[in-house]
Design brief:
Blueprint: E1 5-7, E2 30-36, H1 55-62, H2 66-78, E3 82-87, E4 92-98, E5 123-125
Antiparallel strand pairs: 1-5, 2-4, 3-4
């Protein structure tokens, strides 16, 4: 039985101005995706003081939590996608697979070459703490 999924609040993206849906993508077509991962709020340029941070200090202060990245990687791998790059400091993850492997509702609808932009919303497991339908802890 498939895991129940709900809308991720704030994830809806309207179709971009000038975007055009030109038809369904070939399900066997190879695709690469970049997933932006969450992290702590970055300071404004006016709030930055002191000496520059080392790359390790920056990653520790502003990078994605390794546990969050591991959960996203595991979820993508469940669909057969190959995660080939994870940057905690850059808050990003790169994966590849076929259009057919794209997790419906988790990643944007894949359009064939010539299409511009994406729209729609993302769906996450109902038990995810970011879901307003998640069970109360405890």
């Amino acid at each position: 039985m498939a895991e129940a999924r709900v809308e991720l609040p704030g994830s809806h993206r309207p179709q971009a101005t000038g975007a055009e849906q030109v038809g369904p993508a070939d399900q066997g077509e190879e695709v690469e995706v970049t997933v932006t991962l969450r992290g702590p709020e970055l300071p404004s340029a006016d709030d930055v003081t002191g000496p520059p941070l080392t790359p390790d200090a920056y990653a520790a202060a502003y990078g994605t939590d390794p546990g969050d990245a591991a959960k996203v990687k595991e979820e993508l791998q469940k669909f057969g996608l190959q995660v080939y790059d994870v940057s905690l400091a850059g808050r990003s993850m790169h994966a590849r697979g076929t259009v057919a492997q794209r997790p419906a509702g988790l990643l944007p609808e894949i359009q064939p070459p010539g299409a511009i932009g994406h729209s729609g919303l993302r769906r996450i497991p109902a038990a995810d703490p970011r879901s307003d339908r998640a069970p109360a802890p405890g």
